[in-house]
Amino acid sequence: MAVTSPDVVALYSDIMGSLVPYYEDQVLLPNSSFIRNFYDITGNGSGNTIKIPLVNAYTNGQTVADGASISAVAAAQNDFIPTSVDLAMTKKGSWTDITGEAVEDGSTSLVRNQVISRLAGGIAQAIDISGFAELAGSGATDYGNATASATLERNVVMGPDSLAYGVRREPTVNAFYNNDKDQHEFRATVRAGFKALAASRIALVGSSNVIGQATENADLADFQKAVSNLRAGNVPSMDGSMYAAFIGPATEYKLVTELNHAGAVNIPSLSEMGNQALLTSILGSAVGCMFFRTNNLTVSDNPA
């Protein structure tokens, strides 16, 4: 079935037009609920790295005696000292080849759905994995398990100013027809990246990555400690009250009973929260966290 077939032409057009909405529905981290610092540099020639300015925190004012020099009170000094971090955007790709026979035997609608879901899901997963890796490698304090050499899910607690996201190329798919193989070839790419803005704005909660393991698990008290330390550092929360907590399958298994008893009473209207990945990942809220499940956390060993 050559690319000139009306059905195949429509198939190519549909796949190209549907990739972005499917991708946006499946990716979790690049969501305005979680990340406020979003940089879109598509369509210009500014390279693949952007410099993000950071500012130092202000200090509390001090008591100054009447008629005394204000600048003589060293603790009252509030100089603006700007710094910056670099956010690099890398290419993520996913591909699939479909034979002409598969299109004929499986119908164009089946092929369309499979190609779109595989390509969009593949690059969405790659983006989320890279974002959680950036958070896990940020140097943030881990308030979870400290057992030497334990292999842990690096669960993350963060606010909307903890991580920045940049995109150089929106999700794109190119389609080709291989005459020699009678094969339709699809190549999807996206160029994007994340940067942790400050380790102090992120909290990790390491917990065993083995589902049902009796030891080396984090509990709600560990997440409460993470939240308390973020609040102590004046890290903005997601909605003025709660932080986003991303947990892996083993941690979800451990916490589900505690979460059920704590009650999910502060979950905002799901219609206002965003894409399907976000809606299907939400678990509940407790100890100042809104919990979301994900399979894309970094798993790593504690130092021996």
- Secondary-structure element sequence? HEEEEHHEEEEHEHHEEE
- Alpha-carbon distance between the termini? 58 Å
Number of DSSP strand runs: 12
Beta-sheet strand percentage?
25-35%
As residue ranges, the low-confidence spans are 263-272
Q: Number of helix segments?
A: 6
Quick one: overall form?
globular
Assembly type of the chains comes to single chain
Average predicted confidence as pLDDT: 87
What is the SS-derived class?
Answer: alpha+beta
How are the SSEs placed, and which strands pair?
Elements: H1 6-26, E1 37-40, E2 49-54, E3 83-88, E4 90-99, H2 100-106, H3 108-136, E5 151-158, E6 163-178, E7 183-196, E8 202-208, H4 220-232, E9 243-247, H5 249-262, H6 276-281, E10 282-286, E11 289-293, E12 299-301
Parallel strand pairs: 1-6, 9-11
Antiparallel strand pairs: 2-3, 4-7, 5-8, 5-9, 5-12, 6-7, 10-11
